[in-house]
């Protein structure tokens, strides 16, 4: 990972002129774009190019993301902020891409003051004020239903208010009490379902922490909105207000 960090400020990686065939191929692979109108798709393309011009990609473990991978990541990253603006991603530049999942060394001090060191398999990680680390699989089925890009960029939005806690800064007109009530009640219910070993449509990883619940729900909002609104309609309504989109109201 640190070798990749040292290469973050290499030449920019934006495709200088994206052919229509590449746009179409990448968009066809992203079902999360299905609800967008033609005008919104055009705005998303323009935002993706601006994103690529601003951010710097670095491959890890010998992997170099090609134009397809970079464009796919850019489109997915820009989808949540399509109606919010790229300023939401200001203040950092680096995106490190691994060929598949990767291992993160962890250090944890328990309640008795003992230090535990271990390794954790991961698909992505967001660093407060720093880069985003992502996995890339050529076969989308290898993601096992997860959308790691939307997940990690949701964390970035959450971190705009400080440490990720599932409570990103809300827009004018949104009600903090309503947000907390919707998410707190849903999180408590979801954790109880996981403890009862119930099968859930949401990734069980959402039970790890309120920040992970927000990120996983953000994934579901764009990739499986029908399931999210069925299980947690209050959360869906809050996310629709936050992202200023409604994936269930297709305009395609």
TrEMBL record:
Coiled coil: none annotated. It comes from the Bacteria. The lineage of its organism: Bacteria, Pseudomonadati, Pseudomonadota, Betaproteobacteria, Rhodocyclales. Pfam families: Peptidase_M90. InterPro entries: MetalloPept_cat_dom_sf, MtfA_fam, MtfA_N. This is Zinc-dependent peptidase. CDD domains: Peptidase_M90_mtfA.
